[in-house]
Amino acid sequence: MPRRARLALKALVWAACLAPLSWLVYRFATDDLTANPISFVTNTLGDWTLRILLASLTMTPLRIVCGLAWPIALRRLLGLFAFFYVCLHFSVWIVLDFFFDWPRMWEDIVKRPYITLGMLGLLSLLPLALTSTRGWIKRLGARTWTRLHRLAYLAGVLGCLHFLWLAKVGRTDQYWHAATLALLLGVRVVDAGLRFARRRRRAASTVPA
Amino acid sequence: MLIRRAPRFTSNDVTDETLYWNRREWIAAAAATLALLPGEGAAAAPAGPPLKAARNEGLSLKEPPTKFDAATTYNNFYEFGVNKDDPARLAHTLRPRPWAVQVDGLVHTPKTFDVDELIRLHPPEERVYALRCVEAWSMVIPWIGFPLGALLRRVEPTGQAKYVEFTTLLDPNQFPAQRRGFFGFSSLDWPYVEGLRLDEAMHPLTLVTVGMYGQVLPNQNGAPLRVVVPWKYGFKSAKSIVRIRLVAEEPKTAWNKAAAQEYGFYSNVNPEVSHPRWSQATERRIGEFRRRPTLMFNGYADQVAHLYAGMNLKALY
Ligand code: HEM
Description:
Strand content of chain B: 15-25%
Largest sheet of chain A: none
Order of helices and strands of chain B: HHHHHHEEHEEHEEHEEEEHEEH
Oligomer: heterodimer
Radius of gyration of chain B: 19 Å
Bound molecules: protoporphyrin IX containing FE
């Protein structure tokens, strides 16, 4: 893909990923964060963490299914934005929701499974964010790096479980998110299966009769 | 226009009755100056038809009410949808007049009342109550209504009556979320049913509510008639009631049917019994920044704790 096109795509991702945050800032400025601003901001940031995380996990399946190469160029950027949003989501929880009430926060982390799952989701994104630089790719070697970064799927699973657990009876959006993740994982599993079969066949055909 | 921009509530409304009852005039007089001030109350909801009632000071909280705006735009009313802003957005689909309420079951004189007839029979009073949602937020609302006990005595419960069952209107034309969605999905099993033990229903705090903030009850808050049971989580206070039935068995309530381990029949506000997914130890009072501790029976322990003497409130949550 031409360099220009790639830059344009990246600019587009930047704009799209910053839009929800700008929208929140705008609603803050116009005093329009609903009657329960803290809850509204937490939920909006959580929603966008999950959406962007799922978007980053869509890039490889897009290549597999549609044979496109360009999505891969956006994968890391999307992942970093997901990390950015989860950090905001987490900070709001610490600062606005609990106002640094550490004992009570710790109690929630160990006692509330949805918080435990969210925490694990955040922790599984942390090494990916830290090793996202070109230097780290070199240091780890492309193979190890790629393998490490499959943790993103774990973060997706944990994020979806977090959402399934916290969503009230009667809501449906949590199921749509989980179904999307299942589809993405399904594509990868089928792809891995096909590749494995192909390798076996190739290995078999080289064995002398 | 100026009147709309004036702040609807100040703490004076709670402490100074004369100011409160002359609110409209007082606001009109003050509007010219206040309208110049930005911020608070800028998006006040349009006033509904007034409904005046003297405040019962003895049964009223001495705290400033939640802003009217918040109390009418941040609601859980699943008949309109699961989001907090759905009720205010869709409330116009509900037609609260004329409205009949059937009161029957194990009673000597069953009767169907028109809502306005009920209001004539039981002159309403204002009571400022704390409202605690099971989702750990709370408000302070000046409700207008009359004790449910007065209505129940009128129909004379029989000796077998042990519980009171409330049924909300079932009409998908007025309650859009009662229509089924994808795959026949429905958030709750309609109609919404709630219930109280007879002694809870007869308790003087249990209020049949027809208004709030000096107005006829807005649609999104359960018009034309709901109950308010201030020591229980909000969902126990059934809205838009069409039937009140006295029964011998514990009613099968909507949230209990949907998730029994999360929403017990009693659902008394209790900081020591966590919801399975979140803690109930603290709450966020709408309009406040920091969480505040949740009080046993939502602060009404002195009045209602005796109803539960000897009961294990951890098992019967
Ligand atoms: C990968 C990490 C995470 C993802 C994908 C994620 C996603 C979400 C989503 C989708 C929601 C629901 C929003 C809604 O109701 O519309 C949510 C809510 C929430 N999340 Fe997270 N989250 C993550 C990590 C965390 C962490 C680390 C914490 C705090 C320790 C946390 C605390 C919360 C809280 C308190 C809520 C609100 C729950 C409620 O209002 O009932 N999350 N999150």
